[in-house]
Every structure is written in structure tokens, then in C-alpha cells.
Design goal:
By secondary structure, this protein is of the alpha/beta class. The chain has helices at residues 7-17, 52-60, 73-81, 93-96, 108-121, 140-152, 168-176, 192-195, 205-221, 233-241, 263-266, 286-302, 317-335, and strands spanning 65-69, 86-89, 126-130, 158-162, 181-186, 225-229, 247-250, 258-261. The longest helix is centred in the C-terminal third of the chain and has 19 residues, at 317-335. It comes from Penicillium bovifimosum.
Length: 336
């Protein structure tokens, strides 16, 4: 005598045969049974929110300001939880996050998407976003419009733009609207083609004088900080001494008021053989750890080691036996 299907299965079959809707109301449960889960909200921070006033206070105490790039929720979350005072959504996103050849290809809309992700991961740090190439050079009005979008749509607290004295009127326009601006001088990657590539700046007396004049001009225009990239340490230190706002160095020595690095670079999250600027120090080997983990996973799947029973959901043996008894019948119905 064939085993009769349990009532629950017979009811299901009856509903199917009659083309009646099947209830999808989930059963109450206390655990999350899902193939994935969100990282959740960023961990509540015990430190106070970092403001412009906080950064100015650090500058007055001669305490270095820490800045790090982030491009999404996880990278922002770790930067903030590790105590960074400033999190920068840099246009370096184009190269290290989107696989582009340089920073010029990333658009304002793409930057905004990543800014929103970063803003959800940051609870205390001061957030700044790069204005990408093409979003601010045409006029101060264009720059202000883009900056407002970064604040309103990207949930950022300030913006960064590249350029020295020639951008003074633009910086003034944006700061007059109440938006903090970080000016980026020295090596300006968006202008690499006019600079002859990614080259160290300020190596001659005339170049150092131009750097100082640029720094003084953007400070006068209202910049709250000045980022100095790829400038010899003694030159950057002298420029820093002549300003009354903090400088943030990247490849410009520790005489600056603070430092910034690209998170992907300093964490070593890249394959062997990739070019790394001289000024980058690797503090971890994220790529190596990630690859070892992925390789171990592949081997366990190929060897049917994963998933073992501890990673599987359980079911009553009686249910399995009952299902085995009706499975061929159900398949036969589907064929008919």
C-alpha cells in the first residue's frame, strides 16, 4: 500500500489542482533564516561629532589631523570606528573602486551614490567629498550647484576641489553659501595631463613660490583646510608654517597639520605588482587575507567539505521520510 501523503502535503496538492491561491504567510520565528544579511547600522560612537571647530582645535593644539578615504558603507564604517577625524570620499574612487584609468572619468552622479553609502557608515567623523572633474571648472555658479548637491543629496559636510589661486573666486562662492571647502594644491590629479603626469611638485624655487601663493590665495578665499599632494617635505612644512588653517599632507611629509591616504592603498587591498606611490605605507595585507579566504572556500566546495552539517538548517526526520514517500508522485503530477 502506498504511503499516504501527510495532511499538509495533501492540502497543498488540493489547492494546486483547484488553482486556488496558496498562503505565503510566514511562520513566526525567532531567528533570521536568510541567504544574506545587511551589515546593519553603523556602530553607535561614544565620541562627539567632529566639526570644523573640532579640527580647528586640533590645529591650535598642534595635534595631527587624521583623514582617510572611503567609498562605501564598509570602508566608511571601519574608518569612522577606528577614530578617523575626517573621512574623504575621494575621486580616487574612479581608479581604486571602479577600475578606471584615472580620476577624470568619474561623474558627479557616481560620486553622489558613493557619498550616500559613506554617510550611512559614518557616525562621528567629518565627511568631505571631491568635486569630480567637469562639475566645477566652468564657473563659480556651476561649482556652487555641484557643492550643494554634495551636501543635500550626498549627505556630506564639506567638499574638496583642486586648484590654487585660479580657483579663489570659486572657493569664495561656495564658502559664502556656508559650505566648507578643502583646497587641493601641489599635484592635482585631475590636471595630470597639463602637469606632465603624476609628478612631484614644488621642487624648484619658482614652483615652491607658486605653491605658497596658491596656498595663501585659497586660504584668503575661505578654504578651511589645504591639502598638499606630492611636495617635498621641507617645502610643505614651510608653507604650513605660513598659513593659519590646517594643511593635510599626502606625500608631503609630516610637517603638515595632518595626513591622508587612500584606504585601499594603505590596507594593501590590491594584487602584487600594482604600482604604489612612494609615500604609501602598507599597514595590512587585505588582498592576501581575502585571497587566502576565497581560495580556501573554493577548495572546500570542490571537495564537498563545505557546507558541513553545522552550516545547514535542520529538519525532522519524519518530514524527510514523508517527503520521500510523495516526491515521485508530485513529480509525476508536474509531468502530467
Amino acid at each position: 500500500m502506498p504511503l499516504k501523503a501527510p495532511n499538509s502535503l495533501r492540502s497543498l496538492r488540493t489547492l494546486r489542482l483547484r488553482n486556488l491561491p496558496i498562503s505565503r504567510t510566514p511562520l513566526p520565528c525567532t531567528a533570521r533564516y536568510s541567504s544574506h544579511s545587511p551589515m546593519g547600522s553603523a556602530t553607535a560612537s561614544t565620541r562627539k561629532n567632529v566639526t570644523i571647530q573640532t579640527l580647528q582645535a586640533l590645529y591650535r593644539k598642534n595635534e595631527p589631523i587624521t583623514m582617510l578615504t572611503a567609498y562605501d558603507f564598509p570602508s566608511a564604517h571601519v574608518a569612522d570606528s577606528a577614530g578617523m577625524e575626517v573621512v574623504l570620499v575621494g575621486d580616487s574612487l574612479a581608479m581604486v573602486g571602479m577600475g578606471m584609468e584615472d580620476t577624470n572619468a568619474v561623474t558627479l552622479d557616481e560620486m553622489l551614490l558613493h557619498c550616500r553609502s559613506v554617510s550611512r557608515g559614518v557616525k562621528s567623523a567629518f565627511t568631505i567629498a571631491d568635486l569630480p572633474m567637469g562639475s566645477y571648472e566652468t564657473s563659480p555658479e556651476q561649482a556652487l550647484t555641484s557643492a550643494i548637491r554634495m551636501i543635500k543629496e550626498g549627505n556630506m559636510k564639506g567638499i574638496k576641489l583642486e586648484g590654487g589661486a585660479e580657483m579663489a573666486s570659486t572657493i569664495s562662492k561656495i564658502t559664502t553659501a556656508g559650505i566648507p571647502v578643502v583646497a587641493h594644491i601641489g599635484l592635482t590629479p585631475q590636471r595630470q595631463h597639463s602637469l606632465g603626469g603624476f609628478r612631484v611638485q614644488g621642487k624648484s624655487t619658482s614652483a615652491a613660490v607658486k605653491l605658497l601663493r596658491d596656498a595663501l590665495a585659497v586660504q584668503k578665499a575661505g578654504a578651511c583646510m589645504v591639502l598638499i599632494e606630492a611636495v617635498p617635505a621641507p617645502i610643505a612644512a614651510l608653507v604650513t608654517q605660513k598659513l593659519s588653517v590646517p594643511t593635510i599632507g599626502i606625500g608631503s611629509g609630516n610637517g603638515c597639520s595632518g595626513q591622508v591616504l587612500v584606504q585601499v592603498d594603505m590596507l594593501g587591498n590590491f594584487p602584487e605588482g600594482r604600482f604604489l606611490p612612494k609615500f604609501v605605507k602598507r599597514y595590512a595585507d587585505v588582498w592576501g587575507e581575502a585571497r587566502r579566504g576565497v581560495e580556501a572556500y573554493r577548495e572546500e566546495v570542490k571537495g564537498r567539505v563545505f557546507p558541513s552539517s553545522e552550516f545547514c538548517y535542520g529538519v525532522d526526520e519524519e518530514v524527510v521520510r514523508e517527503f520521500e514517500g510523495v516526491v515521485d508522485e508530485v513529480v509525476g503530477e508536474d509531468i502530467d
